[in-house]
Amino acid sequence: MKALCVGIINKKENFVDAQESLLELKELGKSMGYTIIDSLLLSCAKIDAAFYLSKPMVQELKRELEEKEGEILLFNEELSPTQLKNLENILEMMVLDRTELILKIFQDHAKTQEAKLQVEIAQLKYALPRLKRMWTHLSRIEGGFGFTKGPGETQIELDRRTIKNRIALLSKKLNLVATRRETRRKKRLTSDLLKVSLAGYTNAGKTSLLNLLAKEKLVVEDKLFATLSPVTRKVFLSSQKYALISDTVGFIKKLPTPLIASFKSTLQEIKLSDVS
Question: N- to C-terminal Cα distance for the chain?
């Protein structure tokens, strides 16, 4: 799909930060397989409750999308359910805000049980106030929000009470998985091996470095958030010495609140490491 990326300069963000964040949005779009036709950085002094942008700016966006044959708009801020619905009605196409786009990427890249649980919980929390819009997406675009396959497949058809019950159940499962992970981590702490964490920006090459050091063949992709769970390997250093090296989830600016939990294990690995 051809996507137009839109970033915002407001009182909270200066031009340089807004530009860097917009570049991230473009990479996020590419990670989802979208073709980025252009990116726009707009100044927005006041947030409009109905559209986020002013009505004239929305109309200008519509003309831009029509001229460049855009099929989807990627918006670099979190939009309210009302703003999303109103923008889609005027633009006559699907709109993804930054949070929804990252959630879709996390869903595609979640491999471990812990990551899958974290992503489904985040998806359901995001979906609760947006159920009506989600149903509309499913009727218009194959794949919709991502609930037509994988984690959360049938949740879009359930009412809010059922979704809340589902979140509670998944949270319990996640706590059990996290407890088992913490037990394994404590066992590693009792060893006298050097503990190293590879930390940094997403898609910076941390997994490639671990592959090189540990002579592993972990999957490496030129995409943001290809790794969603810490991976630890024992690496030979020299003179019969070994180290435990952990690959961690990469960081990104403006991470959606529902996904902050996905980084707890990474932050814990870094905190307990001898070197990071």
Answer: 39
Residue percentage of the chain with pLDDT more than 70: 78
Q: Is 71 inside any structural domain?
A: yes
pLDDT for position 243: 84
- What tens digit of pLDDT does each residue of 69-101 get? 999 999 999 899 899 999 999 999 999 999 889
Q: What range defines the domain where residue 37 resides?
A: 1-92
Burial zone of 249 (CB within 10 Å; 0-12 exposed, 13-18 middle, 19+ buried):
buried
User: What are 2's strand-pairing partners?
Assistant: 35
Can you give the pLDDT at residue 73? 96
- Overall domain count for the chain: 1
Domain containing residue 56: CATH number: 3.40.50.11060
Beta bridge partners of 232: 246
DSSP codes of every residue in 110-174: --SHHHHHHHHHHHHHHHGGGHHHHHHHHHHSTTTTTTTSSTTTTGGGS-HHHHHHHHHHHHHHH
* 48 within some domain: yes
d(CA 42, CA 39): 10
Residues of the chain whose pLDDT is less than 50? 138-153, 155
